[in-house]
Design brief:
Order of helices and strands: EEEEEH
Shape: globular
Number of domains: 1
Helix content: 10-25%
Structural class: alpha+beta
Radius of gyration: 12 Å
Number of helices: 1
Distance between the termini: 34 Å
Largest sheet: 5 strands, antiparallel
Amino acid sequence: MALRLLEKFDRGNITVKVYRDTEWEEYSVRLYKNGIEQINASYHCEYLDDAMSTASIMIDEDHEGEMK
C-alpha cells in the first residue's frame, strides 16, 4: 500500500490525517487520539474535496468533550 500524507489537522490530543492511497486510487481520512489511530473512525472516498471536508468535520466534532 502506497500512502502519501496530504494534510494534517491538530487540535489538542486529536489529529486527523488525509492520505492519498495510490494502490486503491482513493483518499483516506484517519483520526488519531493521543497518537493512536482510531480504526473505526477512518473514512475512504474517491474525491479530495470529500476527504478534506470530512477531515474538517472530524477535527471540529466534539469527541467525548475533548475538543472545542
